[in-house]
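Priority: low. Protein: Serine hydrolase. Input follows.
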Amino acid sequence: MDFPTRGNAAGSAAADAGGRRADLGASPADATSPGRSRHAAAPEGKHRTRDAPQNFARGFASLGELALGGVQVSARATDLSTGRVLFSVDDHVSMPTASVGKVLLLIEVAARLKDAEFGLATMLERSGIDAVGDSGIWQHLQVSRLSVADLAALVGATSDNLATNVLIRAVGLHAVRARTESLGLSRTALLDLVRTKRGPDDAPQLSVGSAKELTWLFTALARGEIVDAETSGRVIGWLSLNSDLSLVASAFGLDPLAHREKDHGLLMVNKTGTDVGVRAEVGILRGPRAGVTYAVAMLFDDTRLMTRLAALDGMRAVGADLLEYVH
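Result:
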């Protein structure tokens, strides 16, 4: 995956599951943590950013209609090179983000690879306490032991729940939380293991996050500034395998199973989260004209199919505006 730098200059080496850094064309101008962002004073809440381009009106209107219909919406998009806020809707609110929080686990795993006893080839075995259904393919495979690199690739590619739980057991949820806090994230967290059912003593959500912090996190990953360039590159490489393009990215026209190379001038890395009444996505889209970092999260009453479909339509509308901006 060759993410070009600004303009027509050639990008750096492709970021892949082996961990080469991806240069997504971000500028170091907005390199501070969320708590010290140069955009801390940007308009927030249910208001469009004053200098937002007109071509974001469609997505903004769609999100507004959903909010009026009772859907809780949080969203943010920033220019990848300049950090300029293109639009925001309650981007400071901490929302349920389902599997989006697995990005924080991948960051801790990538950072741990510097330890002599925890390398890419370290073998980890699944056990009964890790068992969980839903997303992922490891639960359907016969092999019971996989390397750290393979497990991280499974999480990136299919949001594999079983692989997630095995990696959490290996590095410790407390370490993921400590890493998250060290990055300056206060409204974004991986709260728990993946569970088929959540009881009264369990965390109510797998993860939470604010659109403002998530866009900062992905921009920093693109610049190679989360822990270090090698760590950031590995995380970007794993995420580039993601096969879920059903939400915001459904508007980009990319092949869900093969989009690590430039396609019609587009390159994209994303992570989605899906649960009952929850849809969330954070990502980076780079095109011929510009690049954007975006995050959209929705919380809604999932008792009616039409409500869910309306939420999906709203996310696709945002994606269409993002595509128009970069292409």
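The domain at 28-326 is CATH 3.40.710.10 (Beta-lactamase). The chain has one domain: 28-326.
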